[in-house]
Description:
Blueprint: E1 3-5, H1 15-19, E2 30-32, H2 40-44, H3 51-63, H4 69-79, E3 91-95, E4 98-102, H5 112-130, E5 134-139, H6 143-152, E6 158-165, H7 171-178, E7 185-191, H8 194-206, E8 217-218, H9 225-241, E9 249-254, H10 259-269, E10 274-281, H11 286-293, E11 295-296, H12 317-324, H13 329-339, E12 344-345, H14 348-357, E13 358-362, H15 365-379, H16 385-397, E14 405-409, H17 417-422, E15 446-449, H18 452-462
Helix pairs in contact: 3-4, 3-9, 5-6, 5-9, 6-7, 9-10, 15-16
Bound molecules: pyridoxal-5'-phosphate.
Pyridoxal-5'-phosphate (PLP) binds next to helix 10.
Amino acid sequence: MKYISTRGNAPELNFEQVLLTGLATDGGLYVPASLPEFSADQISGWAGLAYHELAFEIVSPFVGDCIPEDDLRAILAETYKDFAHPAIAPLIQLDRNEWILELFQGPTLAFKDFALQLLGRLLDYFLKKRNQRVVIMGATSGDTGSAAIEGCRRCDNIDIFILHPNNRVSEVQRRQMTTVLEDNVYNIAIEGNFDDCQDIVKASFRDQSFLPEGMQLVAVNSINWARIMAQIVYYFYAGLSLGSPAKEMAFSVPTGNFGDIFAGYLAKKMGLPISQLVIATNKNNVLHRVMTDSVYSRTALHQTLSPSMDISVSSNFERLLFDLYNRDGDCIRNMMEVFNSEAIELNDDAMASARELFSSASIDDTATCDIISKTFNDIGYMLDPHSATGVGAGRLCNRNPEQPMVVLATAHPAKFPDAIEQSNIGVQATIPPHLGDLFEREERFTVLPCDRAVVNTFMFDQL
Ligand SMILES: *Cc1c(COP(=O)(O)O)cnc(C)c1O
């Protein structure tokens, strides 16, 4: 399998290379040159497979000959073995045709574990073979940081530096990162906001000369192709559980950077009969605005009760645009250059094909809390605020109530106690047993000024 850039002007890479690369050299994102397609017979033959076995069937065409079959099977079995629920991604029924796919049974209670548990192991596998060390650097507003740290804490050939805005992530989120005390894990609290953290990370990737000789930075945000790949699996898993490929179904996906829902789009192209994908956004509705007005434009960022969806631009949307514009890299490069300084209007053909599959809604904090409290009062099920936007958007956009609507539950409610509190349901979300002592654990992190040079010097001194 070869990977190409959405901007058409970077070297083709294989899976191993794409895993170790962030953005392409032309500023684009890597996508597979072609997608594997599975027949209905093939897909129905996977019914009843354990999660990691299904993962092997779906992931192996993307990995190609970069990892021998037995090694890949072993990595995948290892990846999902510590999830708290034996089904890995259990389905919960909310209504006759409405389902919740719980993607928060991993170690950090958010869906990002599905990809980052695998990413850490894949990196470690290749780095050992190459006898190489790399440095992971990332910025987090909450969930990515803890999932990345958890995925890499036991990797011998990785040092990981995660920047978070000092005093601006929730205590649960901070402690999930800062109580990991392995020697290769460095938490840096920046005196600034999330954008400041991201700017330092981006600048460090552009000029890596501060690193010791022979070292390179690796990205763990969802521009990394391997993250998208890992997320395709649970769409098939849910589909098979609810009667696919014989049955069509819809998915509603709480969306920030468009990574998770893009995986659903790929699942459809690979043969899963998905009739509709609902883009659930909060007040930060850049994607809802594109779907409604055909104009892709930035606006100011709002703080909401679903902070992991608080973004002003969705980086992975470029991967969809590439397909919508017939994989014309030159065209995407020009569009993205314009988008750096102004809004862009998408053409009618592109929007018509986007609207065939995707619909969208923007769910504000009031509606989010209403959904949390109504669901709890009706059936005793506690949604987290991100998942609640998925439920809300799924209901608003549903094109066929006779088909199953699967809402991806992206986080456990205990991660977002403020939203649960504001929903007035009279109970708190309880932290699952494996994290029960989170508030007693020792923390370790370093507060640094919002200054790229200071951060880079700190990193060099630790390496
Ligand atoms: C990251 C995250 C999202 C958004 O996922 P994208 O792939 O960026 O669209 C939604 N919900 C939660 C809880 C998250 O952590």
